# Entry
Amino acid sequence: MIENKRHRIEDIKRHLYDVEDILSSRKTEGTIHPINHQVEKDWKPEDRSEEKTPTINYSMKKPPTSIFKKFFIGAVIFFFIALALSLYMFYGKNLSVSNDNIDITVLGNAFTKGGDELPLQVEITNRNNASLELANLIVSYPRGASNDANDLVRIPRDSIGTIKPGATVTRNIKVSLFGEEKSTRNIKVSLEYHPPGSNAIFTKEKEYTVVISSAPLSLNIDAPTEATSDQEVSIKITASLNTALPAGGAVLQVTYPNSFVFSSATPAPSIGNSIWPLSSLTVGNPVVVTINGRLIGQDGDQQVFHAYAGATSASNQSAVSVVYNSLLQTITITKPFLETHVIVNNQDLLNYTAGSNETIRGQISWINNLSTRVTDAQIIANFSGNAFDKTSIDPLEGFYDSSNSRIVWDKNSIPDLGSVEPGASGNVTFTFKSIPLVGSSVTIKNPQIALDVSIKGRQPGVGSTYNDINNFSKKVIRILSDFQITSVVTFSSGSLPPKAESETIYNVTWTLSNSANNISGASARSVLPIYIKWIGKVGSSNEKVTYNEVTREVIWNIGAVSSNTGFSSNREASFAISLKPSISQVQAVPQLMKDVFLSGTDSFTNTIIKNSYRPITTSIINDPNFKSGDDRVVN
# Structure
């Protein structure tokens, strides 16, 4: 039964949503409350006068405004009020301040002599309707002749105070300008001020240009515009006074390119090799400085020399701090027409070092860089210096002119020099020595040999004329000092000759000799064999002799050694050692010390000298009590 009811319900649902009504009949129910409506049959005009706006009644109340929102609204209102007030103060009729209404006028001479005191008058007029408060006048101008924007002289700040509307303030200033003739210098005048009721600082600026009618002093450089590498050049600088210089000492400073090798100057510089005083400079009495040196570089290199004249600061006397005038000179390194290249002991260096009485080999190579033939070429090597041995020259293919200390090569000795075609090259060689520094009757300080090489020839010109071509180069050979040490061993006590398994004590004395140059940082050292025992220093000398038990090394910290040590003064150190030979050493001549090594730096040549000496043995021939056989170990 329940199943049948379920089927009926499903059928009703299906018929309910069916598109077609398949019900056979519908049942109409009765009316519960009948309502009668009266409807007009005709249209009537619409009466809008009786239309009423419906009244909406909200039952919910608006929430109260938060305190933060009220604060924000108040802040916004305050901001706009403050902004309006500020605009009114700045642009209102009575409180407006504008830089355009401030006039700065500089009155004075637009021309001045360099170094002279120039008086100027500064007028400041306030055409604003408001005052300029806390006004300050600031004046600055170039310190010297340079165009460095940061190198300025600033006159102490002038506190003006308040400049009322329509008022004019006048200030007098004095400046001293430097520079070359017809150069211009700008004086900067600044006015700092506060508008009424404001903490902001505003600035009005004015530049006044002054022309230098004449420099306080003039500089002139006389130097070549071209030079060959390693050739002597001469630079002549003249300083002339035009007006009075400011109080204080004036100097001339010259800066050199890195490749310039300074050799001499006339007069000699007062500081280093680049500062000369101008205290003797007067009108009509110029100061002339001549600088000699060599330029080293490649073909086409440009080397710049700067000359400055001015005053130095109290804290630094070696540089110009205020420049009165300056010049520069550019020298271009060019390839010589006839070029020579000098090599000493197979080394191509600017300066050389060699030992005393050492045979030195020189080589001169030459080449024709011209596009034309050169005839009658001649090479000359001149020798000079306090260490040159005139008797040691071997010219090989050249001719040695002993009276002039020079070797000459020409077409008579080398036929190729008679006519040198473009690009042709060749070389010549020779040898020479320095004089012995030890045993010489003459004391030599800073020994050296100078080698000046020149080559010249003739270039055929128009017709039968010839142009002479010359080139020069110079080399310097500095001679090392003879720095040596000798070891003298004497018998002290024990068995002599030394006996196996018995102790023999020897005293060792190290003595220094040094010829021409001072030596610094010197030391001597040697190692003791395993069978030798260190005893200690002997004598009362203050020499620093120590022994390292780990390395078994005896070290003499010599330090500085003066020239002529061992001749005019002595330096020596003594110590004692003990020999206890083994039976296996019978009939042997044992070593007391291994090789002795001596080192130090030659102060003149700036070269480290190192010498070594043979080991010390029991063959103590310097001991007057020693006889043959005393050096061998006996049983």
Observations:
- The first strand starts at residue 102 and ends at 108.
- The longest helix spans residues 67-91.
